Amino acid sequence: MMEVSVLDIKGQETGRKVTLNESIYGLEPNEHVLYLDVKQYLANQRQGTAKSKERSEINGSTRKLGRQKGGGGARRGDIKSPVLVGGGRVFGPKPRDYSFKLNKKVKVLARKLALSDKAQENAIVVVEDFDIETPKTKDFINIAKNLKVDGRKTLLLLPTANKNVYLSARNLQRTEVMPAAMLNSYKVLNADVLVIAESALKVIDEILIK
């Protein structure tokens, strides 16, 4: 059983503790499942729009530049030949879709494994639900300092989207804020520390335990 103290935004203990679900935060490592999920996430981010021109797509004359044999060098055809500067490219990149299918059960397991990894590193901080009245980066920085996560790559999970909290953290390069429903393995593993709002724990449980 894994218990974590609930802190307030001043970094003080509230006197409450939450028990992290063993079926989510207490799994044995499985690097291959994590690899597949992270690979799919990164593949889905690729635009796949890289394109180079082949010789048939280059503008230029089709006149043969030199005789076929006896010139003392390699054969070459027109000015669009790939062996010449400015010619077409051989087997260059073409627009393609890099995404691939991954079973839902594998994706769910990968998220559990990512959360388990952070739990085993003691890199999970649970904070009571909070709001910021007006978007101010300074206010968010103070909260991060109180929770002792400033200067570390931080992922903050909220129960629902919160515009003011999001805007307050938007300018901080090493901090990301997202609703718990959008949780993915890559974001969790990429963070040094995971800060979870108390109510977001229930959202995670509902999503990953069915």
UniProtKB/TrEMBL annotation:
Biological-process GO terms, alphabetical: translation
A Pfam family of this chain: Ribosomal_L4
Gene Ontology cellular-component annotations: ribonucleoprotein complex; ribosome
Protein keywords: Ribonucleoprotein, Ribosomal protein, RNA-binding, rRNA-binding
Renumbered residue ranges of the record's region Disordered: 46-78
Domain of life according to the entry: Bacteria
Gene Ontology molecular function: rRNA binding; structural constituent of ribosome
Summary of the function given for this chain in its UniProt record: One of the primary rRNA binding proteins, this protein initially binds near the 5'-end of the 23S rRNA. It is important during the early stages of 50S assembly. It makes multiple contacts with different domains of the 23S rRNA in the assembled 50S subunit and ribosome. Forms part of the polypeptide exit tunnel.
PANTHER family: 50S RIBOSOMAL PROTEIN L4, LARGE RIBOSOMAL SUBUNIT PROTEIN UL4M
Family: Belongs to the universal ribosomal protein uL4 family.
Assembly description: Part of the 50S ribosomal subunit.
Name listed for the protein in its UniProt record: Large ribosomal subunit protein uL4
Organism: Segatella buccae ATCC 33574
Native organism taxonomy: Bacteria, Pseudomonadati, Bacteroidota, Bacteroidia, Bacteroidales
Encoding gene, per UniProt annotation: rplD
